[in-house]
Amino acid sequence: MSDTQWPVFEVFHQQARGEPHVHVGSVHASDAEVALLMAKEQFGRRQACVNFWVVPADAITATAYDDVDIFEHGTDKSYREAYGYETTRRVRAQTTKRPRSLRPPEE
Amino acid sequence: MVQNRVPQNDRPGDPGYAECLSAFEARVARGDKVEPGDWMPGAYRQQLIRLIHVHANSEICGALPEGGWIPHAPSLKRKLALVAKVQDEVGHAQLLYRAAETLGKSREEMIDELITGKAKYSNVFHYHAETWADVATIAWLIDAGAIVNQRMMAEGSYGPYARALKRICYEEAFHLTHGYDMCITLATGSKLQHDMLQDAVNRWWKPIMMFHGPSDGVSTHTDQLMRWRIKLKTNDEQRQEFLKQYVPKVHELGLTLPDPNLRFDEEADAWRYTEPDWDEFMNVIRGNGPASALRLRARRMAHEDGAWVRRALEAAARGNRATVNQNDE
Q1: Which of B150, B138, B148, B140 is nearest to B238 (CA)?
Q2: In a domain? residue B191
Q3: Distance CA B284, CA B68 (A)
Q4: In a domain, B312, yes or no
Q5: Can you name the CATH fold of A8-59?
Q6: Which residues of B touch A30 (CB under 8 A)?
Q7: Domain coordinates of chain A in residue numbers?
Q8: The CATH number of the domain where B165 resides is what?
Q9: What is the pTM (predicted TM-score) of this model?
Q10: Range of the domain at B298
Q11: Residue B11 lies in a domain
């Protein structure tokens, strides 16, 4: 009976053109072509789908969950974000405070 | 490969077990999901493998009594819906076997244990589906019971199982509506149809009352399963939830339920019922139910009859690889 343990393929599913491929699960298959067929049967029965990727599971390299340090920010990284810029707020505050007479005439 | 590491120091008494356990329990209590690479107690791993394996087997065995009725469906519309439901159930089994595999037990081992009668599956699928009304009753009330259970399990602590269950619950919603539709049709049809449905409900009520498992006083696993958020509700709590939702709906269809003690206790805000015979339940899930032998035979036959397809696919895969290699040269 030992003929059912086929390799595992991870399945990525794209709902519409322009959307990203999203991981939805995995299938066992004898090869990539059969994996696509299985993916379609398993994950494409209902929801909209325009494209599938299948990737051999052993081709994926992942970070370790217990290695949490790699996602810790050692220093303040707010300069990477839009909210990290104080001047934007100051400029906005100035603009709204300015008296009506100093604003350019409205059309 | 994204896989679990070899379990380490995961038994009480192992070096570092106590520290790992308290970090693990803190994570679970926070509502964080556990992922395959994480440290987990050996007992957590084993309990999950046991539960997911039984769940997967039940999806497979649940498709059998329904599958047998496909050629006898009363209309093309019903036949198409039933085929779709059976395909869903088998698909669910595959999702679940994959989830269990992330805990270190192979699909092949699990399928072998099912075929050889070593592994268990849900009590309700050890009974015969005698008429078309049984198919309707299974699709409505048993799927309803399953949804109560699966919605709760989908909030559980193990990531891969919770993810599989979210997808499964989404599809079960169609099964439930389809089952309800069939039951309404029979209940509001001719007297013959109504009586056929009443017969089926009478036959299935006892197994349905056992479906969520032994009562809290008898169940041996509940405490640990709840502490580790594998389960969020006890078996009795699930049974009550099911009764609250569905007994009124059954009565609404003009049907009766074959339990003289079934009544709603306003004060306790709970249904009262005759306690199921848990010895009978245990005996049935050990493979001594009326249809147990038939189910295993059907499953084994499907496995053996399908062997040539697997061999052909493997030969084709080898052929493809050979062609690829030739082109490389």
Answers
A1: B148
A2: yes
A3: 21
A4: no
A5: Ubiquitin-like (UB roll) (3.10.20)
A6: 310, 313-314, 316-317
A7: 8-59, 68-100
A8: 1.20.1260.10
A9: 0.90
A10: 40-302
A11: no
- Residues in B closer than 8 angstroms to A33, CB to CB, are 320
As a whole number of angstroms, the distance between CA B152 and CA B168 comes to 12
pLDDT higher at A89 or A22: A22
Residue A28 near chain B (CB below 8 Å): yes
Q: How many CB pairs under 8 A join A and B?
A: 71
Distance from first CA to last CA of chain A, Å, rounded?
A: 82
ipTM greater than cut 0.95? no
| pLDDT score of B100 more than 90 | yes
Checking B118-122 for CB contacts under 8 A at 24+ apart, the result is: B119/B53, B119/B54, B119/B57, B120/B54, B120/B57, B120/B285, B120/B286, B121/B54, B121/B57, B121/B58, B121/B60, B121/B61, B121/B62, B121/B285, B121/B295, B122/B54, B122/B58, B122/B61, B122/B62, B122/B211, B122/B285
CA distance A30 to chain B (A): 6
Closest CA–CA distance from residue B314 to any residue of chain A (Å): 6
Q: Tens digits of per-residue pLDDT, A26-74?
A: 999 999 999 999 999 999 998 889 999 999 999 999 988 877 788 887 7
Q: Is A55 on the interface with B (CB under 8 A)?
A: no
Asked, for residue B13, whether it belongs to a domain, the answer is no
